[in-house]
Amino acid sequence: MVTDASEWTRQLRRADGYATGPYVLSELRRVIVAGQLRPGATLPVDEIGAFFEVSRIPVREALKTLIGEGLVRHQPRGGYTVTVLSGPELHELYLVRGALEAAAIEAATAAATADDDERAHEIHQQLTAAIDADDVHRYQNLSRAFHETLLAPCGMPRLLHMLGLVADLTEPSQAMSLLDATQRAELQTDHALMLDAFLRRDGVHLSAAARRHHGRLTAYIDEARNGQGDISVP
Q1: Hey, what's the torsion of the CAs at 204, 221, 170, 199, to 10 degrees?
Q2: Are residues 123 and 211 located together in one domain of the fold?
Q3: What is the pLDDT of residue 151?
Q4: 177 with 143: CB under 8 angstroms?
Q5: Can you tell me the distance from the alpha carbon of 234 to that of 38, in angstroms, rounded to the nearest whole number?
Q6: What does the pLDDT read at residue 122?
Q7: What are the average pLDDT values for consecutive 10-residue runs of the chain, which has 234 residues?
Q8: Which of 60, 165, 181, 185 is most buried by its number of CB atoms within 10 A?
Q9: How many other CB atoms are there within 10 angstroms of residue 22's CB atom?
Q10: Distance (Å, rounded) from C-alpha 169 to C-alpha 144?
Q11: Both 58 and 128 in a single domain?
Q12: Any domain includes 16
């Protein structure tokens, strides 16, 4: 995980040609949501502008948009930083993610196709490989992809959009890195049960498995935090 802006050239991608404001925004959002910049990391306007070869204006506009999305915070004398969530804030956001999933999961199961099955199975295999390799960052990203794949057939685009916004807020904290290997393996067992119910088109059992999974995850995060306060991953 990158901790300071001097290493950004390894993470950000320059545009082919002129970097537009929307491109600067999308790149900053990408590296923040992917957890490639730790919560609390400084976002220096001048250095970002120099990297993209643009003025301060599109950089500031991008950062203002990210403030509106909850991914960036600004202090008058402290500049722009990646948002640091308190433990209760992260807990709340995972509760919201669980509630939104619960609202869509049975409909998604009923509408799923063989293509959805194949995609879910493929991502589950990749999750298992990430567990075996102890690749926590990859497991974090694939876990989100797995849940999104199970929900994709639900036919509720607005709900999925809201879920994506909430997930974007939790991802920079890289919650899986707060857990130990045994806890991540137990979450992967939950994923296996969820996949089995999905493939059998058993929405009731899938809902129950997902509810247990979210309860387990939030409990593990609370335990790992153990009163340490804000979630900033070094």
Answers
A1: -30
A2: yes
A3: 98
A4: no
A5: 7
A6: 98
A7: 54 77 91 89 91 92 96 90 91 93 95 98 97 94 96 97 95 89 95 98 96 94 68 46
A8: 60
A9: 12
A10: 12
A11: no
A12: yes
Q: What share of the chain is helix, strand, coil (3-state, %, to 5)?
A: 70, 5, 25
For the chain, the domain total comes to 2
Could you tell me if 106 and 192 lie in one domain? yes
Which of 112, 40, 22 has the alpha carbon at shortest distance from 83?
40
Measured CA to CA, the distance from residue 27 to residue 185 in angstroms comes to 32
Which domain, by its residues, includes 52? 5-82
Same domain, 106 and 212: yes
For the entire predicted model, the pTM comes to 0.85
Residue 220 contacts by C-beta under 8 Å, 6 or more apart in sequence?
178, 179, 183, 187
For residues 204 and 189, membership in a common domain is answered with yes
pLDDT at res. 3: 47
| Same domain flag for 75 and 99 | no
Report the Cα–Cα distance between both ends of the chain, in Å, rounded. 8
Check whether residue 102 and residue 73 sit in a common domain: no
Four-point Cα dihedral 226, 31, 125, 211, nearest 10: 40
d(CA 160, CA 176): 22
CA nearest neighbour of 1 among 171, 123, 126: 171
Contact by Cβ (8 Å): 124, 195: yes
